[in-house]
Each structure stands twice: as C-alpha cells, then as structure tokens.
Amino acid sequence: MAVKIRLARRGAKKRPFYHIVVADARNPRDGRYIERIGTYNPMLAKDSDERVILKSERAKYWLDNGAQPTDRVARFLADAELMAKREKNNPKKGLPGKKAQERIEEAKMKAEEAAAAAADAEEAAAEE
Prior knowledge:
The chain has 128 residues and is of the alpha+beta class. The chain has helices spanning 56-64, 71-79, 98-127; strands at 3-12, 15-24, 35-40, 52-54, 68-69. It folds into two domains: 3-79, CATH 3.30.1320.10; 91-128. The protein contains three helices and five strands; from the N terminus they run E-E-E-E-H-E-H-H.
C-alpha cells in the first residue's frame, strides 16, 4: 500500500481550508484517510502561527514508516525540521511560452526588414 501525506480540501467556496492527512495514494483527494495530522489555512497571514498546525510526532512516525509527502506538505515538514528541504531547479520557468516566442521572432524579422529598408533609402539618397 502506497501511503501519502497530503492535503485534503475543506472549507467553503473561495475560502479554502485544508487538513493534512495520511492516506492511501489510491483514494481520492478528499476521500477516506488513515489519520489527520494537521491543518493548513492559506487565508491567514504567512507569519501567523495558526496557518500550519502539525502534529510533529505523528508526521515523523509516518515518514519513518515510508509515507511520501506531496510537494506542499514537504515544505511544511521542512519548515518543522522533520525532513530536508527539497531544492527545485526549473531553468525554463522564466522563459516565455511558445506563442510569445513566435511573436518575438516576428517582431525581430520586421525590425530587421525596416532597418534594411532604411539603409537602402539612405544609400539611394546619398547617390543622388
């Protein structure tokens, strides 16, 4: 059985609230879980103590027994110093999308054509 430590959404529409749960990976996100080990309220300020509440000893128990945290929960566990922080490297994150790159290429081509036309006009004016 693959066990995950993940977020289960609760709360109203546009007012999210999450339970940090230990669940079988095959169960749906908000479905049945094995144990609830904390809460996460993204509506609170980032420096609030009640934004993330975690039962550290239970989280450590599940990590020792092979439970795999999701990316967001792994950040919470790293903040609680229960596991090492995962460094991510996405060098393409800041690059524009495919359509934007095509538009940039078109703009470069038009600028080069305009520069060539201006140079031709200058040469023609200089010859006269």
